[in-house]
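Sorry to interrupt, but I need a hand with the structure work. Leave the record below and I will have a look:
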Amino acid sequence: MSAEDLEKYETEMELKLYREYRDVVGLFTYVIETERRFYLTNDYEMQVHSVQGEVFFEVSMADAWVWDMYRPARFVKQVRVLTFKDVNIEELNRSELDLPEDSGFGGGERNA
């Protein structure tokens, strides 16, 4: 496989992953980003641990979707992440996920 073929394959996989993300993001409430992965979930628990002066985070999620183009299945029943790095948790704003009715995309006709 040439470098060009590999690059084309990875580009196609990234596009496929993005389309899947776009299709499922509306099903979830939270985005959780760690150093290694990006997750969508409706339920999570985060605990901060301190052992001998070292602080680390434990994040548990149920029924999550993981952004990883190398996984054959991206829906995961249970996830547990332990990390010494930052964890970013954001609640999705549903209105940001909806396209405006007059955007020209999807339902409704446009007047010329």
Remarks:
- Confidence is low (pLDDT under 50) at residues 103-112.
- The first strand starts at residue 30 and ends at 33.
